[in-house]
Amino acid sequence: AAINAALPVLPADLPQPPIYRKVNPADTPVLTLAVTSSTLPLQTLRGLVDTRLLPKLSQVGGVGVVSVDGGQQPAVVVQADPVALASLGLTLSDLRGAIGEANSNQAKGTLEGPERSSTIAISDPVDTAAAFGRLVVAHRDGAVVRLGDVAKVIDGAEDPRLAAWSGQVPAIILRIQRQPGANVVEVVDRIRQLLPELKTTLPAAVDVATLSDRTETVRAAVHDVQLELVFAVLLV
Q: Phi, psi at residue 29, to the nearest 5°?
């Protein structure tokens, strides 16, 4: 309720709305997974993780939050050419405003009639470097100035400095934390039962490995207690 009440005063260009997570920050992950691939780039791998693994893992009973380390969010990178901008009398602010206006997810206009008013919307999202390069940013001397004329537009990552490794292999690390009060062993068992099904939805070149399992020590302790009980019964 507090998040919904605060939405009107938040910036309109947030990359994602605020979220609320119920988890104990001091609680260590119950399971840590590494997603790697010998052929796919990290941007593609991150997209597969976000669309095929995260939603399913987050819905497992007892899972509080699934955190992602490493990987690179796919993004279109615009590298402006200051010389080309200056020659056309444009600035970086002009370029940024033109990109935001051309790619805003808003209605393009309205048609007003005597009895009906219609809103015009075009379903053509701009999500590739080639499409961004064709965006019109200005008009000079009757000619159209496109984004590709004043900038280098490439498919890249939001932050290329983010990285994680599994051994010596670049990887995306998934840290799974339980909800407060949830049974650690039961949560991990549910995840392990789901993993084979999730792997079938991924390309064959993608590998999902377990880096750490908090229940190993728990299971070992329970096993030791069971042995001690058997010895105690036999001795008594």
A: -60, 140
